[in-house]
Structure formats: structure tokens, C-alpha cells
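Field log, afternoon session.

UNIT: design team B
ACTIVITY: writing a sequence onto a fixed backbone
BACKBONE:
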């Protein structure tokens, strides 16, 4: 008898598509924020500003993430 081949579920397909799209967006933003030798001074300042704004954003939301994780842990136990 032949073993039936397992077909991936739709959830796995959609998850793989989501991960692939996220990877493409991440690569695009990483490329846009990368400093290059041929960038003008204005472009370099904007790129540095974008990186600083991203760091400040993640620092600002980190307390909310920690509080959310604590609430989740307290609700689980």
C-alpha cells in the first residue's frame, strides 16, 4: 500500500506567506536605512533620524509589553 502524502494545511501556507512578506519588508527597510558612501549629508541625517526614532519607539513601548506579559502570566496561573 502507498502511504498518503501529507498535504500542508492552509494555515501553514498562509503563515509561510506572512513570514516571507515580513522578511521582504524588513529587508527593504534595512536597505533604506543603511548608510552608503554616496549618500548626501541630508540623506545620512534622515537615515540616522529614522534609526533613532525606531529605537526611541521601542524603548517607549517596552514597559507596556512587560506589563502585558505580566498580566498574561498572572492570568495563566
Amino acid at each position: 500500500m502507498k502511504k498518503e502524502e501529507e498535504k500542508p494545511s492552509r494555515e501553514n501556507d498562509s503563515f509561510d506567506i506572512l513570514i516571507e512578506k515580513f522578511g521582504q519588508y524588513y529587508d527593504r527597510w534595512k536597505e533604506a536605512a543603511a548608510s552608503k558612501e554616496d549618500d548626501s549629508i541630508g540623506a545620512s541625517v534622515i537615515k540616522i533620524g529614522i534609526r533613532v526614532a525606531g529605537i526611541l519607539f521601542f524603548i517607549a513601548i517596552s514597559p507596556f509589553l512587560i506589563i502585558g506579559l505580566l498580566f498574561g502570566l498572572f492570568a495563566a496561573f
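LOG NOTE: The radius of gyration is 21 Å.
NEXT ACTIVITY: expression trials, pending approval
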